[in-house]
């Protein structure tokens, strides 16, 4: 009788997982449109500084840069003129410049360049690419390669290198990106920030061993790993098939994709602390959205098996649509800025994070890829 019960339970779990269907494309697009409209209405002045919990920052920082990544993705599948105008106005408001200027080596400052370059490709006005190219050229012409000491920086800066490599057909951008990426992966912290045994990344040197979660496990921050997934996906999407070191990015991407399914929560989300549900476990949008983005892209590009990954993506996307998107477009269950599971806690459906922009960007990236499936 016990074995029959176990078999029945196993069948029920399997059926529950595989019964998950992708949400209708129109429903995903409706949710993205609503969430984006909420944000654009709230931030009608694209150049307005952002008042955060500890300081005021210009609106070309990384949080806003991630939002515009999502907006440009949304524009691909729903090319509304207002979206393009909003992005162009943002670039113009900042004179297509970077926080801290062209001498900055901070990936957070360079994130805005992803959208600047996209807009340059639509209308090749030199001012749109001038500063971001000058900034990345400074990195290329420097021997220093240890700037990306936190994994978030991979998503902020790697796609910029990849885009410039394509535009100028110059392998130096690919080579510098690889050198900096490899230093982060293998040398930052004690032995690098990537753990190949588990296919996951520590956010920075503060969290690699001997640091442990309350339950004595490795601390893998969900959004930090999400940033790496997004970095790899965006670089693979941009780079030519014969670009240098592409195989390394694809290999690491696939290792991460292998690790993530078993860590998904029954409700469809991933915990902020991926392997320890006691470490502020619960619903969270940003990491979940970035994993959906990566998995949906992988299926669409033939790298991931749809039978395995589509139910996972469907479960997560359905959860976000039903439990995060307010009727007015506000997004709940978003962990604010930070670097670890405890930051911004506790989360809730109604709580407003310190910055609303990057969470929306993650959601738009995920939704756009799901619509493309």
Tag the structure with descriptive keywords:
two-stranded antiparallel sheet, 4 strands, Glycosyltransferase, 14 helices, mainly alpha, disordered N terminus, 373 residues
Fold and architecture overview:
The protein has 373 residues and is mostly helical. The chain has a single domain, classed as Glycosyltransferase. Helices cover 56% and strands 2% of the residues. The protein has 14 helices and 4 strands. The chain has a two-stranded antiparallel ribbon with strand order 1-2. Strands 3-4 form a two-stranded antiparallel sheet. A hairpin with a 4-residue loop joins strand 3 (194-195) and strand 4. Helix 12 packs parallel to helix 14. The longest helix has 18 residues, at 25-42. The N and C termini lie far apart (42 Å).
Summarize the helices and strands and which ones pair or pack.
Elements: H1 2-18, H2 25-42, E1 50-51, E2 56-57, H3 62-77, H4 81-93, H5 107-110, H6 112-122, H7 126-140, H8 152-168, H9 171-186, E3 194-195, E4 200-201, H10 222-238, H11 246-259, H12 285-300, H13 306-323, H14 357-372
Helix pairs in contact: 2-14, 3-6, 3-14, 6-7, 6-8, 7-9, 8-9, 8-10, 10-11, 10-12, 12-13, 12-14
Q: What overall form do the CA principal axes indicate?
A: globular
The CATH architecture designation is Alpha/alpha barrel
Number of helices, counting only DSSP H or I runs of 4 residues or more: 14
The overall average pLDDT, rounded, is 95
Secondary-structure content class: mainly alpha
DSSP helix fraction: 55-70%
Whole-Å distance between the termini? 42 Å
Kindly give the count of domains: 1
What spatial order of strands do you see in the largest sheet? 1-2
Q: Write the CATH fold name.
A: Glycosyltransferase
Please state the CA-atom Rg, rounded to the nearest Å. Answer: 20 Å
Largest sheet, strands/sense/barrel: 2 strands, antiparallel
